[in-house]
């Protein structure tokens, strides 16, 4: 039986206060506004009579987030860089007409880009090729190295005639696999060291070009320029769709020319606004000219000169002029 001096309500309040204050008698007595001894006695009587806490658990407060209004903001844009670029002109005494160089030089004068870049294979060097079998008709037809250098000098002079001076607009140049024939020949014939590569380098230097070797890179605005990228096996990217492979494997935008097939690919990469571009310049041989080694194979070659706008490691835009367009616009 409960003590007649305590109501059931009072005993229930005691156990509830005790539970509410996590078993702290002093805090529960203070919460109940009574002396500690009085509360302890009342709590003991409530427990003796079997009273249990009867508290409703406090409803937890859950903060509901506001609907997201996050909009990715691009980083501040850097300055644009304009680059006139072409490759694979394949000069040779077998192509005596040098007018395309004159036309491209005049285009450079009109565009006045920040840089002029050439991507290699600017001379064939058939005289140093390993493909012609000694004594064969192909061997008989190929020009002498000295004649190739005379032809190259004519081509460079044609471009230089009306193009902006190298001290005004930087001229950057890469060697291609055809120029590399000179390096390979000298490596196989140590007594000729520097004879053939030196002759080529002297011509390029006379016309104000800074030169990078085959397989090397020029970087402008975070974009890489090379004759042809090299894969993990140390070989050139080739095959049916080499630009696709380059775009998949590269971590930066690439400008190249080796296949003569103009392309402009964009590949997104993981991350907000991330991506790279791969641009193949095509070749700058006379419109429709097919080298003998290509024969009647599928070519799809593109004959053009290009201007790229580069910003923040991206190829922002590209313009191209075919060799025929340049002839119509700048021909004498």
What structural class is derived from the secondary structure elements? alpha/beta
Cα gyration radius (Å): 40 Å
Share of residues in strands: 15-25%
Give helix % range: 25-40%
3D structure, described in words:
The chain contains ten helices and eleven strands. The protein has 332 residues and is α/β, with parallel strands linked by helices. It has two domains: 62 residues; 250 residues, Purple Acid Phosphatase, chain A, domain 2 (4-Layer Sandwich), CATH 3.60.21. The strands form two sheets. The protein has a six-stranded mixed sheet. Helix 1 crosses helix 2 and helix 4 crosses helix 10. The longest helix has 18 residues. The mean pLDDT is 91.
Question: What descriptive keywords fit this protein?
Answer:
332 residues, alpha/beta, Purple Acid Phosphatase, chain A, domain 2, 2 domains, 6-stranded mixed sheet, 32% helix, rod-shaped, Metallo-depent_PP-like, Calcineurin-like phosphoesterase domain-containing protein
Spell out the blueprint of helices and strands:
Layout: H1 8-20, H2 25-32, H3 36-48, E1 81-86, H4 99-111, E2 115-118, H5 137-141, H6 145-162, E3 171-174, H7 180-188, H8 195-206, E4 210-212, E5 218-220, E6 223-225, H9 242-249, E7 254-256, E8 263-268, E9 275-280, E10 304-311, E11 314-322, H10 323-330
Parallel strand pairs: 1-2, 2-3, 3-4, 6-7, 7-9
Antiparallel strand pairs: 1-10, 5-6, 8-9, 10-11
